Amino acid sequence: MNTATPAHPANNFDFVRIVAATLVLYSHQYALSGQMEPSFFGLHSFGGFAVLIFFAISGYLVTQSWYSDPNILRFALRRLLRIWPALAVVVTLTALVLGPIVSSLPAADYYAHGGTWQYFLNLRFIAVYILPGVFEKNPYPLGVNGSIWTIPIEVLCYLVLAVCGLAGLLKKKTVWLAAIVIYLAWYFSQNSPDLYHSIHQKREMGAYFLSGSALYVLREYWQKRPWTWLAALALLAGGLLLAKMRYTALLAFMPYAVISLGTASTPFIRRFGRYGDFSYGIYLFAFPVQQTVIMCLYPEYGFWNAMMLSMAITAGLAFLSWHFVEKPALRFKPSKNTMSNTRFCLPERINFYALYLALFAVYFSYLLIFWPGILGEDSLAILLEVESNREFQSGKPIFWYLFVNSFYKPFNLVEIPVIVQILVATAILARILTYVYNENGKRPFFILLVFVALAPHLVFYTTSLYSDGIYACALAGLLFETWICLRNKTVSRMSFFILFISIPFAIFARPNGIINIIALVVLAAVIRIPKQRLGLAAVSLVWVTVAFYGVANHKHKTPIGTVYPVALFETVNFLQPHAMGLYPPRVSAPAIQALESVAPLDLIIKYYDRDYWDPLIFFPQGPALASMEKSQQDILISEFFRHNLWRNIPAFMSSRVNIFLVSAFAQGGFPGPTYAKNVLEKTKSESIYRRWGLERAEKALMAIHDASFENRWLLWSPLPGIILLLFVTLRAFNRRDLPALTVCGILLLQLSAVFFFSIAGEYRYLLGFFASPLALLPIYREIRKSDEK
Predict the structure, then answer these.
(1) Of 346-355, 493-502, 615-624, minimum mean pLDDT range
(2) Which helix H or strand E contains 747, and what residues bound it?
(3) CB-based contact 375:680 (threshold 8 Å)
(4) What is the C-alpha separation between 166 and 231, in angstroms, rounded?
(5) Which of 194, 281, 657, 670 yields a CA-CA distance of 20 to 30 A from 364?
(6) Which of 153, 237, 257 shows the shortest CA–CA distance to 194?
(7) How far is CA 328 from CA 61, 79, 286, in A?
(8) Mind listing the pLDDT tens digit for each residue in 286-333?
(9) H-helix or E-strand containing 250?
(10) pLDDT of residue 63
């Protein structure tokens, strides 16, 4: 470890941070005294304004830290050593020393109370503000340390920066600046207080943090002409103020003003921190000190006297914290030469079984918390189909019924088929990720691990009784093994294993899965080794036999098919009235008669939803068009392809694009994590809802899930996978690369099927394209390697 203490920097950042920390203390004094906090030009309280200053400075300095040494382990250790030791001391002293002194509870009861020990969750960056009986009669009751709410957000910003750095986004500064611009544009369009009249604090802090980061990247430009930049941004802010965009004006101007002042070296001011950086200590200690002073001396001692006494005590504690906690901890910050050998933490190769166990542990832990799994209406439908011996039919593929019937019915436990899904999915993920790590390197491995394999929504769907999560993983596994086998012209034992567990879910668990059988046909044509061809035939025959058995013995009473739904949905779309009245609906008379054979035309038009066909089919008060007789369905389909489609191409294409984008941006419906309770009550299942009682872990996971869901348009997007697919297709076509073209061709057919035949804006239909980089990224890396040779 580096035990040398760095020299005091010749800049103004210490001064700016101490002023900001003092502003927080000043602002809190009003709130803790039961008064309204003063505001900064009516935008934020002075404390809130100071927090934004901290985040802008943090974005600048933490980005500087990354660029000076882009090593994830050393970066994480530096951040931890800066933020955690003082936090640990404050939390411990507050809970174990101050708490029992000021609590209304006897000391024995205080220490025996669960809330006392729950306060230590702050050390895991989970904000807890209350200690039993502490400050309960203060003007601001119960709040022990309200300042610590920003610490988890600060850590989240560090984490985002580290992950982006690990993914290579910071390697090229233009790419990182583009990513920041995208975030700021999204923040402005979706969360700007000027537009929505409410402040989303976490996202606003993220905007200031990233603004500071951008200023570090651009420093070589603005440091040459600081006053020109200041004038230009002042003019921009002034224009925004005239346009009544006050919050946007602050975001445009304040980070630069703060960073330019901080990086300057002003006489006297630059020596402000020569005795230490007390800002973090002031920020952490001020709140409990102020509450204690107010409890003991306010209002008798007066507002200003109480504040000055609090300030003096806080400054003393901050001095001690710096010299006896923070500064000694920083002596252990690793230098560039420390831990430089990444083999110490990251082996040159990883083992499939070790990664399989690790991934299974993550997915199974998720299941334990949300026991017995994520269940929705489709889960209920398939469970009722199994329990009723298909008297009730869900309309799902026969293989999915056979799978659930095999693993649910003997035990009446929903978690059994979910566990089987997890076993299969994590085996496939481990196989692909092991290959990527060992053959393509650590960076692509971490990209796929963090952004795909451990993406909260992929874990969510894989631990649900829905076929979509396991289908997405199985599709990636089938395509990956197809590529490996075609490239090597041989089938390894591992490939046989992955193909065996992937084929049933990738081909037979979803209606569009039949397209994926192309992979097996191409493999059979290319693989020439007799034993391996025989093995492929045996693997395929097992599952084809199961599928044929299911179809032969478990007929659908009222099969809906693939073509009838889109013909029905789009025909009703073509009937929608146009306010301009330029032309009447262009639908043939036989098609209208077929619709009217089930329900009045007005009722059908009334229940049309451009995003979902469900109201036309499933709503009790709706037209229930699924009951249309087979002969009328044939007429509707025939008229659709002979007349109605060609007369309404613009309406058809706009409807297809709408459905696709609703799915791609995840705007449709989703099963809630807690909906399983409702499903279990309607079935004969013996599964116990939340059997293990992991409420605290569930709360933490729900926070992650909610954050992911709130940003699903970005974090869940299948568009990167689709863009990668198009790019790899072009490269493979130019090279006449049969293995890569086979994979890309299947995915393009799947994409076309989803685009032209979807009748609901369900994100899960595109989940396979979110997971497609698992197969496509290794292919892309191999193509690049070949081109470089």
Answers:
(1) 346-355
(2) helix 738-757
(3) yes
(4) 36
(5) 670
(6) 237
(7) 20, 15, 22
(8) 999 999 999 999 988 899 999 999 999 999 999 999 999 999 888 888
(9) helix 246-263
(10) 95
pLDDT grade, residue 463 (50/70/90)? very high
The first and second tokens of residue 253, run together, are: 């101007």
**What's the one-letter identity of residue 440?**
N
Please, which residues have CB within 8 angstroms of residue 590's CB and are 6 or more apart in sequence?
635, 639
Q: Which residues contact 320 (CB under 8 A, 6 or more apart)?
A: 281
**Is 778 in contact with 436 (CB distance < 8 Å)?**
yes
Other CB atoms within a 10 A radius of the CB of residue 167 amount to 16
The rounded distance, in Å, linking the Cα atoms of 210 and 122 is: 25
The CA-atom distances, in angstroms, between 12 and each of 229, 264, 525, 557 are 19, 6, 71, 77
Please give the full DSSP string across 336-350, using - where no structure is assigned. Answer: TTTT--GGGTS-SS-
Displacement of CA 642 from its chain's centroid (Å): 44
pLDDT in tens, 210-264: 999 999 999 999 999 999 999 999 999 999 999 999 999 999 999 999 999 999 9
CA–CA separation, 70 and 65 (whole Å): 8
User: What is d(CA 374, CA 415) in angstroms, rounded to the nearest whole number?
Assistant: 10
Element (H, E) at 307: helix 303-321
Residue 213: exposed, middle, or buried by beta-carbon count in 10 A (0-12, 13-18, 19+)?
buried
Calculate mean pLDDT across residues 682-710. Answer: 88
Give pLDDT, residue 560.
76
* Structure token pair of residue 582: 């330029």
For 385, what's the count of Cα atoms within 13 Å in the CB-facing half-sphere?
A: 24
The pLDDT assigned to 677 comes to 94
Under 8 Å between Cβ of 448 and 773: yes
SS3 category, 283: helix
350 vs 476: which has the higher pLDDT: 476
Going from the C-alpha of 767 to that of each of 513, 720, 743, the distances in angstroms are 13, 12, 17
Judge whether 74 and 334 are in contact, CB under 8 Å: yes
pLDDT tens per residue, range 424-435: 999 999 999 999
Check if the beta carbon of residue 743 is closer than 8 Å to that of residue 482: yes
Check residue 787 and give its pLDDT.
80
ω into 267 cis (within 30 of 0) = no
Run of H or E residues at 45: strand 44-45
Look-up: residue for tokens 């490996």?
484
Dist. CA 213–CA 230, nearest whole Å: 17
First and final C-alpha spacing in the chain? 41
CA angle centred on 523, ends 518 and 526, rounded to 5° = 125
Q: What pTM value is reported for the model?
A: 0.72
